[in-house]
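FAQ
Q: What does a multi-component entry look like?
A: The components come first, one per line:
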Amino acid sequence: MRVRNFFKSPLLYSLVLVVGLMTALGVQAQTTDTTAVSMSTAMDTASTAAAAGPASPTLISTDVDTTQLSWNLGDGQGNPVEIGKIAPDYTPIYKSFSYYFLLFFLFCAFIAIIGRSLKAYELTRSIQGKEKGINWHRIQAVLLGIVLVVGLYGAYWSYTTQGAMVNSISGTEHGERIDFMFNITVIITTIVFVITHILLFGFSVRYAGSEKRKAYFYPHNNAIERLWTIAPAIVLTVLVLLGFFTWKGITNISDSDQKNALQVEVTGEQFKWSLRYSGADNQIGTRNYKLISPTNGLGIDFTDKKSWDDRLAGDIVLPVNRSVRFTIGSKDVLHSFYIPTFRVQMNAVPGMPTYFQFTPKYTTAEMRGKLNDPKFDYILLCAKICGAGHYNMQVKVRVVSEKEYQEWLTKQPLYYNDDVKKELQMASASTSAQVALTSNN
Amino acid sequence: MASTAHDTAVHHDDHGHHHETFLTKYVFSQDHKMIAKQFLITGIIMGVIAMFLSVLFRLQLGWPDKSFPILETFLGKWAEGGRIKPDFYLALVTIHGTMMVFFVLTAGLSGTFSNLLIPLQLGARDMASPFINMLSYWFFFLACVIMMGSFFVESGPASAGWTVYPPLSALPKAISGSGLGMTLWLVSMTLFVASSLMGALNYISTVLNMRTKGMDLWRMPLTIWAFFLTAITGVLSFPVLVAAVVLLIFDRSFGTSFYLSDIVMQGQVLPNQGGSPILWQHLFLFQKGQFANISLL
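Then the predicted structure of the entire assembly, as C-alpha cells:
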C-alpha cells in the first residue's frame, strides 16, 4: 500500500479515535477510583477517630462518623450531601496528555467532516446537473473583506485602548524628543499600514476570481516602481537620520555638563540594583571587582579618598530639574537600566561602565497629579533577561524638590563605615605583620 | 518540469534501473522538489511546536495568578501545580524565539522556496549539487532534533533569550539552562549554520552556472534575484555566527575569556579578564541584521 493511501484509510482515524477514547476512559476510571479512595479514606479516618474515643465506642462512633462525613463530603459550607450525588473530581483528566490529544484530534475531525460534507453537497449538485454549488471565489472575497474590516477595527481599538500605555507623559526633557520621534514613526507607518492593507484586501475583494472576467497581464510600470522605491527610501532616510541625531543629542554631553551633573552609580547583579550616591565632592570613588567582599559588596577602593563620602541608598531619589548622570555597571551578567517613564534605557555590562545623563522634569507628586493616579511611582526595571529573578529586579524612583533631596541624602549611611574601617585596619595590620616577618627572615 | 521528471522516471523504469525506493524517494532524496517539501514540512512542524510553546508561556503571562493543569501535563516538573517556574519560563521564551527565527523564518522559508523555485524558474534539471542539497536538509533536521532534545535535559534547555547573550549563557551558575541545555543549543546552531551554508552555496552555484540557454542574469525572474541575494547574504553572515558560537563554546568549556571580564558570580570572583560581552552582541547582531534582510528578501 502506498504511504499516502495509508493516510486516506479510515482505519488510521478509527485507530487514533479508539486509542484516544480508551485512554480518556482509563483516566475517567482512574478519576472515579480516586474519588472512591478519598471517600473510603474519609470514612476510615472517621472510624479511626471513633475507635480512639474514650468511652462508649459504638455510640461515639456513629456520632463522629456523621460529623466527619459532613466535613469531608459537604458542599464547603458545612452542609452534608448524599454519597451517591458526589460531584466527581475531574482534575486528573485535565492533567492527562491523551485528553488534549483527543481534543485536538476531534477538532481536526470536525473540520474534516465539514470539508467532506461541503464536497458531498457540491458533488450531488453536479450529479443532478445543477449550476455549480458554492462560489468559493465569492466566499473567499467576502472573508478577506471581513478580515480587512475586523483587522482595521482591531488596529483602531488597540491604538485607542492600549495606545495610552506607550504614549504616556514623559518625565524628562530628552524623553519628549524620543516621544516626538516615536510619534512620527507611528504616524508614517500607520498611514502606510492602512493604505497598503486597503489596497491588498480591497483588490482581493473587488477582483475576486470570476468566469466572466479575464485577468489583465500587467507586468511592468516604471513610474510605479520609481514611486514605491524612492518614496520609502526617502522616508526611511528621514527616520534613520532623525533617530541618529536624537540619540547623538541625548548622549553627546560636554565635559563641563558631565561634571556639573549629580553623580550616581548603579550596579546590577542577580537580582538587585545597588546604588551609590556621590557625597559633597560630587565624585564617585573608584571600585575594583577584585576587592568585593561581604563587607564591601561593590568592591569600592577605599584608598581612593573620593569614595569616603559616597553614600548607600535603597531607593533612587532625584532632585527635580537637576541633571543627573548615572554610571551603570554590572557585577555578573548583562542587565539593563530601564526607567520607562524617563525614556531611559542602557545596558549594564560587567567590565565596561556605561552612562546615561538626564534631567527629571516633574516630581513624583506632580506626575501623580498629571496622570491622575495617586499611586503612581517612577520605577527602575531590568530590561535584559538576566536569570530566574529577572522579573523582580525593581527599584522605586522618587523625584523630589532639591531641599527634600538634600535632607534625604544626609540621612543615607556612608559606605565607608566602621565595619569597613575595621576590616581595612585588620588587612593593613596583617600586611605589615607579613612584611615584618619577611624582613626578619 | 514536473512532467519532464515524471517522464524520465517512467523511461528509467522501462529500462529496469534507477529504481526509487521509499528511502531514496522520500527520506534521503536528492530531488530538489522533495527536499523543498521536506524543508516545508519540517519548518511547519517547528512552527507549530514554537507556537505551542508560546501558548504555554502566554497562558501564564496573561493570567499570572492562576494555575493551569495543562502546563503541568506538558512541562512536568518545570510547572508543578500548573505554574511555570521562572527559569523555565525563560527557557520557553528562548526556544520559541530560536525556533521561529532560525528554523521557521530562515530555514523554513528560504529552504522551501529556494529549493523549489530556483531550478524550476532557471530551467535547470536540479541543483548544482543534489547531494549537498540533501545534506543541507539533514543537517537542518539534526539541528531541529537536537534543539528539541534539549527539553529532555535535566537542567532544562537554553534560557538566556534567543540572542543568548553571555555572560548569562556562558556561566552555568548564572541560570540552570546555561548547562547542558546551552551546549546543545550551540551544537544545534552550528549544525544549522552548516546546513544554511551548504544550501546557500548550492543556490549561488545553481544561479550562476545552471541557467537555461538565453537566460542571462538580467533576464532572471525577480524571485530568483531575491533568493540569489539572500544566499549571498547568508554566505557572508553565517560564518560570523559560527565564529561567535565557537568563541562562546571556548569560553564555556576551555576557560577562555572572549566574552567574560570582571565577573563576581554568587560571591566568587571569576578569573576571567579582558573579554567583553559586547563582542558577542556585535557578532550576533551582525547576523541578526542579516535575518531581517533574509526574511525581507
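Q: Is there any commentary attached?
A: Sometimes. For this entry: Chain A touches chain B through 30 residues (CB under 8 Å).
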